[in-house]
Design brief:
The protein is an alpha/beta fold. The protein has helices at 22-28, 35-46, 63-67, 88-91, 117-134, 144-154, 162-180, 184-206, 211-233, 236-247, 260-273, 296-308, 355-371, 373-379, 381-391, 394-404, 445-452, 490-508, 526-534, 547-559, 590-601, 635-644, 655-675; strands at residues 12-18, 30-33, 52-58, 70-73, 78-79, 97-100, 103-106, 463-464, 516-520, 539-544, 565-569, 581-588, 605-611, 678-684, 695-701. It has a domain at 7-107. Helices cover 42% and strands 11% of the residues. A 13-stranded mixed β-sheet has the order 5-3-1-6-7-11-10-9-12-13-15-14-8, sandwiched between helices. A two-stranded antiparallel sheet has the order 2-4. Helix 17 crosses helix 22 (635-644) and helix 22 (635-644) packs across helix 23. The protein is globular and about 75 Å long. Residues 219-294, 302-317 have a biased composition (Polar residues). Belongs to the GSTCD family. Residues 197-328 are annotated as: Disordered. This is Methyltransferase domain-containing protein.
Length: 705
């Protein structure tokens, strides 16, 4: 077709890590790889696509990595042999990594594992448990993460639209029960069909039939077979419609021994037992006699009697009905307790298979193999039932078990395994009873004063004047990078533009041509896109874990036809590349410290405006206070100051004290950077009214890398 060109659909390339060289792979067709790369490959096989390709990246592994590696047996895998073949955005991430044009996705899950207990369990905790078991010599007690998942499977299912799911399951159960239960119509039809077939075979073997007798027997048998099939394959509601249509056909009305009146009575009794929600039309029960043939007149009479007794022609008002169980009248609505919904943990997140099952399946296969099925079932019966349920799914057998069967791990030795007592913590992100590490501290006045009295001279940073002068005009900024273009509500436009201007000017004061700038926790990319326009010779990375936010940012960038922006959908943890400037506008709580740590690790400059001081909390890799200067401040008093720092709302009587507390927390962050060789500046955004969280922390290495 002349004049028409078709754009070739681009490939999504999945990059997986391997501890096996290409030469070794050619000889054995076996790969040693990390568990998370193996899980990703199995999911790729489970969801095959012609637009997805896999590339293997060989890396050097430590002895510890090799000891916890798994083996993939597969032919014809494609290797990227040199660092020049690996795209630079991929090299900046932790494997597995997916790249599609300017979009990079890394990690088993993109949800924030610092705030989602469930995501952290699937993506981090269970993988760590497997690695620990594979490097252990023996086992003395059940790992705590296994007990957490066992407790999770015992708890009521808490998922989105759980009440709607409960109604759907109840409806499916009722429909299945009506089709499979031993109702009279189905039984009689099956018995009738069998008897007619036996009689026909007997007649055929005893004496030849006349043509009329043969035709009558054939019509009778055919009619009953059609009726039995219809009864078996339709629900109660469909049976009524099928019978009405069938009763009008001569083939469907067979030999009848009862009178029309008797048959109507029988049909009415049967219909009362099997009425549907829309009709009470009865279903005729064929008689079992084979010695008489009904005449055409009698058939017409009975057919007319049946139609005259059918109430379907009479108008009736439909009544609203609520789902009720067959055993008791239990209404399924929002007042029903979740525990009574009969929605079970057939799978990890409820009654349906999800991505979480695919991620957890290989780790648990390894765990069960190392501990032993019998012992595992006795210790964790709910988890074992979940695991065996997955092994029966044909697709999982083909795409997971076919590869996992090649595993071999030496079973762990043990005499007895203890069951430690662990905290009953739900893994559901929105479970109101779950452990919440960010639970607010409700401070008392005396607690605040005591905490502030521990702040000695020289701990707090001096607040500098904000002398950043505007170097651009908003009227000259194109629509995609301008808050005034309608990307924000009118009530926020002016304040947002003031916030963006402060951070953009801070970056412009320290940037140099060719820098790589990472906008951490970028959201919809307002700050990063503005910088991409102002700095066309710099590379801007927009990093966030929300695909919807990045998608909106990408649409605006493409409309502006800018080619210096890349989009990373991942947690901050999985970004390990080097860069020149890290920025973060209102990264909540601990996220600001994660950004700061990334910058300090690669000796990059930073420009951050923190928020949500009250949500700070210690984690397995984040310790507060951050700096040596603040090390004498107890953690309880530190968190008390952080909570007080959120009391900076407009016209709040304690806003002045709240502002000082926010500066104390940011001083701790600044002192940490100073101890790492940075020159740090703490100032306020201007005007301060643009946001209650108006601190601006700027850090520049004294000795550039």
């Amino acid at each position: 077709m002349v004049g028409i060109t078709f754009k070739k659909k681009l490939q999504n390339v999945v990059h997986l890590e391997s501890y096996t060289s290409y030469k070794e792979y050619q000889e054995t067709h076996q790969l040693k790889m990390p568990l998370d790369s193996f899980i990703t490959y199995c999911i790729y096989k489970y969801c095959p696509s012609q637009f997805v390709t896999v590339r293997i990246v060989p890396v050097e592994a430590s002895p510890e990595q090799l000891s916890s590696a798994v083996t993939l047996v597969e032919k014809d895998l494609i290797f990227l042999l040199t660092e020049y073949e690996i795209p630079w955005p991929v090299a900046m991430c932790v494997y597995p990594v997916i790249m599609y044009e300017d979009v990079i996705i890394t990690g088993l899950a993109a949800a924030p594992n610092e705030t989602s207990i469930w995501t952290k369990f699937c993506e981090v905790d269970i993988i760590k448990t497997v690695r620990d078991l594979l490097t252990a010599i023996d086992i003395k007690e059940v790992p705590g993460n296994l007990l957490r998942f066992e407790a999770h499977l015992k708890k009521p299912v808490r998922i989105h639209n759980v009440y709607k799911i409960a109604r759907d399951l109840a409806k499916d159960s009722v429909n299945a029960g009506q089709q499979s239960n031993s109702d009279p119509d189905v039984k009689v039809s099956q018995e009738l069909n069998a008897e007619l077939q036996a009689n026909t075979e007997q007649q055929e073997s005893s004496e030849p039939q006349s043509s009329s007798e043969t035709q009558a027997t054939s019509v009778q048998q055919t009619g009953n077979e059609q009726q039995a099939t219809a009864v078996q394959q339709t629900s109660a509601e469909q049976q009524a419609t099928t019978v009405q249509e069938t009763s009008a056909q001569p083939q469907a009305i067979t030999v009848q021994e009862t009178s029309a009146e008797q048959q109507a009575t029988t049909l009415q009794e049967t219909g009362d037992d099997q009425q549907s929600s829309t009709t009470r039309e009865p279903s005729p029960i064929p008689q079992t006699s084979s010695g008489q043939q009904a005449s055409d007149d009698k058939q017409d009479s009975e057919t007319a009697s049946l139609h005259s007794s059918t109430p379907s022609d009479t108008p009736r008002t439909s009544k609203s009905r609520k789902w009720k169980s067959k055993k008791k009248a239990q209404v399924i609505d929002s007042s029903t307790k979740i525990e009574d919904l009969n929605v079970n943990h057939d799978y990890a997140e409820g009654p349906y298979l999800t991505l979480a099952d695919l991620v957890l399946f290989p780790p648990y296969h390894i765990i069960i193999q190392t501990i032993g099925e019998t012992v595992f079932e006795s210790l964790l019966p709910f988890t074992y039932k979940w695991y065996k349920n997955l092994t029966t799914i044909p697709q999982l057998q083909e795409s997971f078990l076919s590869y996992m069967d090649k595993f071999y791990f030496k079973p762990l030795s043990f005499e007895s395994i203890a069951m430690p007592i662990t905290e009953d913590v739900s893994l559901y992100k929105k479970d109101p009873k779950r452990h919440n590490p960010k639970k607010r501290i409700f401070t008392k006045e005396e607690d605040i004063e005591k905490a502030l009295s521990c702040i000695t001279e020289g701990m707090e940073l001096e607040i500098s004047n904000n002398d950043l002068e505007p170097t651009f005009k908003w009227s000259e900024i194109p629509e995609g990078a301008n808050p005034y273009a309608g990307h924000l509500p009118d009530s926020r436009v002016q304040r947002k533009s003031q916030q963006l201007e402060n951070l953009a000017l801070a970056v412009l004061s320290i940037v140099k041509e060719g820098d790589i700038i990472v906008d951490f926790c970028c959201g919809s990319g307002h700050l990063g896109i503005l910088l991409a326009y102002l700095l066309p010779r710099c590379t801007i990375i927009l990093l966030d874990n929300k695909v919807q936010s990045l998608s909106r940012a990408r649409d605006r960038v493409h409309k502006m036809r800018m080619n210096n922006v890349f989009f990373f959908q991942c947690n901050v943890d999985f970004f390990i590349g080097e860069f020149d400037i890290g920025i973060g506008l209102h990264a909540c709580g601990i996220a600001t410290d994660l950004i700061l740590d990334k910058c300090l690790k690669v000796n990059a400059k930073f420009v951050v405006s923190p928020c949500c001081y009250g949500s700070l909390h210690a984690t397995d890799r984040m310790v507060y206070p951050r700096s040596k200067k603040f090390s004498s401040l107890p953690i309880e008093q530190y968190l008390c100051i952080g909570h007080t720092a959120d009391q900076t709302h407009k016209e709040h009587p304690l806003a002045v004290r709240g502002s000082r507390c926010s500066c104390i927390i940011d001083s701790d962050r600044g002192r940490l950077a100073e101890e790492m060789g940075y020159k740090v500046t703490l100032m306020k955004l201007k005007p301060p009214s643009c946001t209650p969280k108006n601190n601006l922390l700027i850090g520049v290495p004294v000795k550039p890398s």
